[in-house]
Amino acid sequence: MSETTGRDLPGEHGQPEQAAGDAAQQADGPVAPHRVIGTPSPAEARVMLPERDQPPARELPADPDDPVVAKKAERVVAVCFVLSMLAGLGFIAAYVIFQVHTISGTRNSNLALGTTMGLAFLFLGIGATIWVRRIMPQVEMTEERKPLASLTEDRAEFAETFREGADASQFAKRPLLRRTLIAATVPVAVAPIILLRDLSPLPGTSLDHTVWRKGMRLIVYGTNRPITAAEFSSPGGMITVAPEGFQDDFDAMAKAAVIIIKFRPGQLFFGPHVRPGGPTREGTVVPNWTVDNIVAYSKICTHVGCPAALYEQTTHHILCPCHQSTFDATRGAEVIFGPATRALPQLPITTDAQGNLVAQGDFNQPVGPSFWERS
Amino acid sequence: MSVEHGLEGVGRTLDDRLRAAKSVRHLLRKIFPDHWTFLLGEIALYSFIILLLTGTFLTLFFQPSMTEVVYHGSYIHLDGVKMSEAYASTLNISFDVRGGLLMRQIHHWAADLFVAAILAHMLRIFFTGAYRKPREANWLIGLGLFTLALLEGLFGYSLPDDLLSGAGLRITEGVLQSLPIVGTYLAFFLFGGPYPGNDIIPRMYILHVLVIPALLLALITGHLFLMFHQKHTQMPGKGRTDQNVVGAPLYPYFMAKTGAFFFFTFAAVSLASAFAQINPIWLYGPYNPVAISAGSQPDFYMGFLEGSLRIMPAWQTTIWGHTIAWNVFVPGLLPLGLIMTGAAIWPFLERWITGDKREHHVNDRPRNAATRTAIGMAAVSFYGVLWLEGANDVLADHFDVPLYTITWIARFAVILVPWAAYYVTKRICLGLQRKDAHLLEHGIETGIIRQLPNGEFIEETRPVPEEARAVLEYRPEYPALPAGSDAENVPAPRMRGAVGKLRERMYHVVTESVPLPEGNGHGNGHAAIEGNGHDEHPATVGAGASAALPAGDEPPAGGRAETDDQDDQAGL
Predict the structure, then answer these.
(1) How far apart, in whole angstroms, are the C-alpha atoms of residue B441 and residue A241?
(2) Does the annotation mark A34 as catalytic?
(3) Closest CA to B335 of B387, B297, B388
(4) Which member of B235, B306, B429, B544 lies 3.0 to 4.6 Å from B390 by CB, making a disulfide possible if both were Cys?
């Protein structure tokens, strides 16, 4: 298939073609032995041996280029392998000695196991590399590379074979068979896709609503207690709240999480948008659904749904840490920077008989990221 | 002697049944060329093996379940906290299984190394032109592997169900949902209903441990088989042509070297995992759709997608009662689509432009294909700007620059920097070509100035050694355009019309290079030596604007099968 020819690296001369010639010459034996005067040297004597007793020419030398270097390297490699073995034994020892179940124990175990394992592999690698580079004789060989295309006659033969097979199968000649076979495979191919239908219920209008209902109390996320407007009286504060009864329901909370922020009187802006060139659609109106300067916004970012959880008191900016969409809490949470296109929806709130903050109803628009069906 | 005897026995037994002696003998003598950049793909391969080994270990303990449990394990700071079984079992692997944390960390480090090595390997292939005929298919397989690796990584680091990866999953859901027409359905079908549901962890688990690894394994097998069958490319050098492979045989040299390299890769990730903590999920806490932490960053290979989401202006259209969220699905699809489509098309585009239908087995030095290298660097800088923008909050924090300023800079940079990178890279490449031409023509400077009897000073130079000459003189040769497509002659039929004109213009751009000194092109000119570096004619290195078009009558060294050329003609 492919012919390999060898030549030694140290002799940096010689074209590969010459090297091939040399190798061939060696293989064929000496062409014209010199006339020998006196006692032949051992090397020449070997050359003069009859052809059949000659061992075949080696392509790879059996001995290292420099025996002294190789001897030294051998010791180094052996030391590396011994160290690797010790590290490997150390790994087993570390497994037995270092117990986990505590934070510091885990740290020590990880350190010991990782170091011994790393060193075991490192010394194996170093040893093997020195072995190749210093002990094995250095060779550079040339292998011929034939064009990848087949020969013309081989191609023709293949084409003929293929055609014969096609003819024998009658596939081309009998369109009825061909077409019915294709017709039979189509449903079989589609069936697996059909099988995936029950991966999920259809979205329907589920993205349009949250669990917020009229009169549902806002409870502080974490302590799970309702909150009155009087309790939340320090301006600048921001609290995450949940609809009562749903604080542990991730599916509900992924849409229904709300932040409430308390402002000083006069800080909040309501009415039609006036900011020129602002990203929020023109004609939109910031509704006043607040209680006692407490405003409630959806916590789910309108970009891709991360919790917009960072609130900067001095600028009244709500920032989503994922992609830095920034909303102005004083102006209906309209977008002032970043990739989000819509303001955070405002939850209409009021107070119940006990003074607790409650929802007036669901959001008036879908919360969270945009989707195709959203109008 | 007895070992040899035993081996002979085994060999005979096997060969009696397989008749493999001849083919295996060829295999053992298969030649592997050497260059340090050829190791990049090997790093990727060995990382993958490490991932399979450590991943198997992790599956023995991991529970891919979103069932809620209350944690009472060894990590006391989370005692009594409600969490999913997936998160709890990841804590158990970390704190209650000996070597579990190490395996987790090795798995994560190896995953990062896997993607990094694939990226570096791809860049090597691109910049050296190793994707050219006959290796286009392997290039495409490589692109598939890269895409799968990204997906595999995303699913993998989302499995522990911690707060950080949960944010990534939420973003994934948001991007899916933004796709026009099908988005909502895709998101629902992946998550089994509204986000987050209870299905996503087990579904990602089976994709992560079975489906994607099986695809990766199949593609890697094909990738390696093609590499083996077509034989590896080699870097230019003395005696290296498109008709040979120069290197060391598989057995014992390549085997030993590559084995050593596997050990080095394993050692590197082991030591990294011993000393450098990665993905400490116990610090992030269990996932909760209401919570998030500032400075959330994905694994590095997702950074460019994160950056493209951050950079995008807030564009959205509402039409006929539907929302088109340009601000989400464009950055979600465009950068990866642009890079992958561009990479997939480029080999064929380049082939069409240059008309170069020959097999290539000797790689180009990146400087010698200035336009290709420039395009590659433009893509790298595009990716790089997005990647940096993905950490804009971290950059703002560390360098005390306003966050929005960074995003605004990135918005311009993502368009301007690739152009600048293209231009600068091209000038650098042409400059390096000029330097090479200068070296070949004048030889190496010695720093010795000699005064001639007539008072003239000359600088002494040393001829370039033969080995180095072979490298310097290797230049890609492009077939000439179909005859007569210059100003004086009537263009060939193929070169007429808008497409032909476009091809001609692109040909001049793609083949632009600094010509080698005359008569020196093929390794036997020794003007520099004879002239002692004192050449009468300065190298005709123009500004590079006039493209060097090596004459088409120069056949590629060596003969090629006739069938091949005919086929190419037909293929065109």
Answers:
(1) 78
(2) no
(3) B387
(4) B306
Q: How far apart are CA B72 and CA B82, in angstroms?
A: 10
Interface test with B, best of A106, A209, A218, A238 (most B CBs within 10 A): A106
Query: How many other C-beta atoms are found inside a 10 Å radius of the C-beta of residue B470?
Result: 16
Instruction: Give contacts of A 17-56 with B, CB under 8 A.
Output: none
| Ramachandran quadrant class, B248 (left: phi over 0; alpha: psi -120 to 50; beta: rest) | beta
Asked if the C-beta of A154 comes within 8 angstroms of chain B's C-beta atoms, the answer is no
The closest alpha carbon to A108, from A122, A125, A95, belongs to: A95
The residue in chain A having the minimum alpha-carbon distance to the alpha carbon of residue B361 is A145
Please say if A303 is a catalytic residue.
yes
- Token reading at B455: 């008072």
Give the span between the Cα atoms of B258 and B268, in whole angstroms: 15
* CB spacing of B288 vs A250 below 8 angstroms: yes
* CA–CA dist A26, B94 (Å, integer): 63
Whole-prediction pTM? 0.85
- Name the B residues in 362-421 with CB < 8 Å from any A CB: 392-393, 403-404, 407
User: Hey, how many other C-beta atoms are within 10 angstroms of the C-beta on A118?
Assistant: 24
Which 3-state string (H, E, C) describes B219-262? HHHHHHHHHHHHCCCECCCCCCCCCEEEEEEHHHHHHHHHHHHH
DSSP SS3 for B305: helix
Do residues B177 and B184 make contact, with C-beta atoms less than 8 angstroms apart? Answer: yes
Q: Which residues does chain B have within 8 Å of residue A368's beta carbon, measured at their own beta carbons?
A: 174
Which helix (H) or strand (E) is B435 found in, with range?
A: helix B403-442
A115 alpha-carbon distance from chain centroid = 26
Q: Is A262 on the interface with B (CB under 8 A)?
A: no
DSSP A277-320: T-SSPTT-EE----BTTEEEEESB-TTT--B--EEETTTTEEE-
Test B563 with A203 for CB contact under 8 angstroms.
no
Number of Cβ within a 10 Å radius of residue A52: 6
Distance CA(B21)–CA(B60), nearest Å, equals 41
Nearest by CB: A323 against B179, B310, B318: B310
Are the C-beta atoms of B476 and B368 separated by less than 8 Å? yes
One pLDDT digit (tens) per residue for chain A, 375 residues: 344 444 444 433 434 444 444 444 444 444 444 554 555 454 444 545 455 556 667 888 888 888 999 999 999 999 999 999 999 999 999 999 999 999 999 999 999 999 999 999 999 999 999 999 999 998 889 988 888 889 999 999 999 999 999 999 998 889 999 999 999 999 999 998 999 999 999 988 888 889 999 889 999 998 889 998 888 888 888 899 999 889 888 989 999 999 999 888 888 877 776 554 444 555 567 778 888 888 899 999 999 999 988 888 888 899 998 888 999 888 888 888 889 888 898 899 888 888 889 999 898 888 989 888 887
What tokens does B32 get? Answer: 């592997």
Phi, psi dihedrals of residue B448, rounded to the nearest 5°? -95, 125
Residue B219's closest CA among B136, B121, B148, B132? B148
- Select from A298, A285, A310, A325 the least CA-distant residue to A212: A298
Strands across the sheet with A218-220, in order?
Answer: A218-220, A238-243, A258-262, A294-298
Contact A123, A80 (CB under 8 A): yes
Residue B317: what residue type?
A: T
Chain position carrying tokens 């049944």: B17
Inter-axis angle of helices A152-169 and B562-571, nearest 10: 60
Its sign, for the CA torsion A288, A290, A293, A298, is negative
